[in-house]
Amino acid sequence: MPRSRYPETRWAWVEIDQGALRRNVRAFKQLLQPRQRLCCVVKADAYGHGALACAQVMRRSGADLFAVATVGEGVALREGGIKEPILVLNEPPITAIPELLRYQIMPSVYTVEFALALGEEAVMQHQVAKYHMAVETGMNRIGVRSTDVVEFRRAIDFHRGIQCDGVFTHFATADEPDGWDFQLQVKRFNEAVAAMRDAGFACGIVHCNNTPATVLSPATGCDMVRVGIGLYGLQACERTRARMTLEPVMSVRARITRTIRPAMGEGVGYGFTYRVPRAAVQICTIPVGYADGLSRTLSNRMEVLLRGMRLPQVGNICMDQCMFALTQTSRQPVAEAEAGEVVTIVGRDGDAEITLDEMARLRGTINYEVACDFGMRLEKVYL
User: Fold this and answer.
1) 362 near 370, Cβ under 8 Å?
2) pTM for this structure?
3) What domains can you pick out in the chain, each with its CATH number?
């Protein structure tokens, strides 16, 4: 693509492949049953991919509803022109109620105090506020206990200012659908929904499947599925990898800002954790560091791609920069690196590829965290 579309104020950026995102959304749409809805989770700035830009692609690709983690995330979508329903996946503070009503954002509800406060404010503004009721089925994070749902609905449903638009739970072990814990959560949720309906309470849109459950346990999908990490081309677990092919949406790249040939024995970076082993080593600097999501724990352990070659990162990763080494050998002479050349930190370069999964394994974490980290400061370029 033309260089003018890349950042000129800093030679480091995240690329977002909108075509891959669109194809991933459509792949999940194809898994759905007739009339089943797709909720696209775009919290944490769409897992670092850019919430508004991704939501715009998703809505054109068939998203029915969007889910966020905070009221502010929902407001940003509304102000960006997103018209579809937006659900906050937890119960916000009571002080957030005016913003919820102003921007027509649905909260999750699981305390009587919040539900009644929402209803009171809605009546004062001549509105009926929709909400989704969170049910606690075993994760022990949020929600009304599954055995208390009827009592809870009796305590709030008299209020004319609120309306239940949905009921949901969240699975802790959806990557192990045959396990006892998963099956117990499914059982508790189904019993809770049945109890509310038997007592005469409407449940609206019933939903429980996250990304791994959508792929591995379609029978538990109810009225809607909530897909997050899979939309961005990242697998939720190894078992989903075998069942569904996804396209990575995020790449991370930078341009070399400086090259040097230090003398043999000289150190590189803070603490000199790497010393130049021979004179034929070229040290190259790129403007990406741990403040950009390149964890310092990867120092001297990761690789980058230059012209399709894997090259070792050397020295401690700094806040805003890091270095890698290009070694000349008589057996494999290569052209020296030059300032301005593009280096791939995550993504594909020729036949070589470095994935977020690879980086997550090196860090001892999950691909979700790595993607979110890269999305915090680096400028995004949408392809």
Assistant:
1) no
2) 0.90
3) 18-233 (3.20.20.10), 250-382 (2.40.37.10)
